[in-house]
């Protein structure tokens, strides 16, 4: 689903992120972990061509499309439908006066998809929400519900891969557990691929198959989640693990 | 949070350029007013009835008026009056308005209610009408115009400062100062006031054009600056009857008002966008 | 335990504009660190504001020693009890040295470098403004400012939640090494485990369980404490569990946790009174069953 070779993101000559290799297959979850300023979010956004100010080089294929050389139209087709971005606070990105159902219907029509009541209800139910939520407005739902709705929207649009940037960092732990549970289920039942950016090693260890640890724009360590977290080879990974309270 | 912020920055920043243009124009107007004695081609109030109503030419770039005064000279000197009026009105209304507003916003409760009710009373009258009434009661002059406009202007700053200060008062650093036992007046002076000023400064630059226009309107109605003071509004009033025959008498001071008011507005809009990233998106 | 607690809440109801968000909470700030655990909207920060004297209770009393806060000597209280809010509690326009100096009498302003040194900061940083410091450095300045008056008790509101983990670890070390008492408000169970001997769990404006921290987290007696603990992801552990549906709103009457509770029965329609049980104070009709299940899990 995602294939990255020698990705370099520069801001005015300064290297903000360098990822030699990153692959995410269908049904797989790969996590990029790091602290603030590590380049993890920059990496994620660059994969969707969302950094127009940055100078991005390398080889990036998302759902078979070469992101760096794709036309804006090709890029939009991938971004809106097959690869979905999930951000930390979706509520802020949803138009406050519009009911969630209307938002979803518009998005589906925009991408030429079936926007029937049943399709929408199924999408919402797949993230364990009551379809009644479609009649509510973004500010009338909780943070966890909004995040799950964002995931439902991605599913309805036919997302094969979800790129999630700190999707649960703004949520309470009990709510985080639900969102993570939904992501796991979608992975198992639909073969959804998941690229997760997070600062939370413990959370990542419970869901990711493979992990990349980033620091100051460079990948310091990568490998199967179990191995990296159990036998870290880089001192920074060890430092991160020891810092866990 | 980081993602959307970064996306936002990629939006074109056209307003910045307009603000820059506004700033340059204002700088030019201010310099022209300050150095009027050096720049003006003729002495300030030199009357030459023989040269009345000459159209613009090499000797008088902007032409002359009914009593033979050089209009370029009068526009330059008029800038002094108009800018001084704007500065005086804005300084007085901001000083009174912000002081009351910050106190109202921080204190809350009955004090806030009383202060805001008073501003309501002032705001209930149409501003120009109240200025007019005051200007009629007092002796018409430039300083009368300043008082008359300032009286109608300060309540806006009170309301603005009150709402900003009320939000600043809930910030954790204000709570921290309260927990340290810092007395309320010190908290207002040290924390609330400095952190409430930015929107007020923006509003001041947005308002400067409006004050100049209002002062011009008062003069135009004969209630502000009086002959022989050079003031743009007064010059427009005296020249308007001649517009069809001697267009330059009214046009150049009118343009001066327009350009200055417009420049202040551009600067204010630009400042607002620069200081408030959320608005820049819209 | 015989000593009188420095601060005590007695059936305190708190709210804004006449609407209560904290209901009849009683809590002693005892020695060894006290944790106040809750998720967003639980009322924990509101309760902290009342303990700091920033919010007057709608009913009930905050006791400072043997006086209610209304009658107490506020100058002494302000010296004894200081807040440590999140790192963003510094005036953005003030140099951080000035922020620390604000806490000091004029004659003692020379102590600023010493105080910055005490929290592990280079005294040179006094001339910087908050945005020129890292999040961890800002949090240390906030702590230095609180320490300036040599308080006996620090009320810490999410002191590390905005920080990166490695920075968080160092700030926690600093806090653990200070010689003051602590009331720590947080949603982070690991931080409470580290800094607090006793903990209280809040849900929907009520205390649902109180007890020794280690015991409370090992064998919760309230289903909400258990849900909270199980939701925290553990390194290499099973995926976090979510029990019950989180979106259910707390009920106006009866047990507030009832709509989310997997163990709810008819008796939960009536509000449970807090009661003593096995070294805890817990407000749940089914606390015995929760405890029994916890024992089963351990074995």
From TrEMBL, chain A:
Gene3D superfamilies: P-loop containing nucleotide triphosphate hydrolases
A GO molecular-function descriptor: ATP hydrolysis activity
UniProt-annotated location(s): Cell membrane
Source taxon at top rank: Bacteria
GO CC entries: plasma membrane
Entry keyword Transport: yes
Ranges of residues in domain ABC transporter: 2-241
Pfam families on file: ABC_tran
UniProt keyword terms in alphabetical order: ATP-binding, Cell membrane, Membrane, Nucleotide-binding, Transport
Membrane topology summary: Peripheral membrane protein
Family: Belongs to the ABC transporter superfamily.
Annotated protein name in UniProt: ABC-type dipeptide/oligopeptide/nickel transport system, ATPase component
TrEMBL record, chain B:
Source superkingdom: Bacteria
Membrane spanning residue stretches: 21-40, 83-109, 121-154, 247-268
All residue ranges annotated as the ABC transmembrane type-1 domain in the record: 79-268
Presence of the UniProt keyword tRNA processing in the record: no
Membrane-topology annotation of the record: Multi-pass membrane protein
InterPro entries: BP-dependent_transpt_permease, MetI-like, MetI-like_sf, OppC_N
UniProt-annotated location(s): Cell membrane
Gene3D superfamilies listed in its UniProt record: MetI-like
Record key words, sorted: Cell membrane, Membrane, Transmembrane, Transmembrane helix, Transport
PANTHER family: D,D-DIPEPTIDE TRANSPORT SYSTEM PERMEASE PROTEIN DDPC-RELATED, OLIGOPEPTIDE TRANSPORT SYSTEM PERMEASE PROTEIN APPC
Protein name: Peptide/nickel transport system permease protein
TrEMBL record, chain C:
Gene Ontology MF, one: ATP hydrolysis activity
Location of the ABC transporter domain: 7-229
Skewed-composition ranges (Low complexity): 233-252
CDD domains reported in the protein's UniProt record: ABC_NikE_OppD_transporters
InterPro entries: AAA+_ATPase, ABC_transp_ATP-bind, ABC_transporter-like_ATP-bd, ABC_transporter-like_CS, Oligopep_ABC_C, P-loop_NTPase
Keyword Nucleotide-binding: yes
Renumbered residue ranges of the record's region Disordered: 233-253
Keywords: ATP-binding, Nucleotide-binding, Transport
UniProt similarity note: Belongs to the ABC transporter superfamily.
Name this protein carries in UniProt: Peptide/nickel transport system ATP-binding protein
One BP annotation, GO: peptide transport
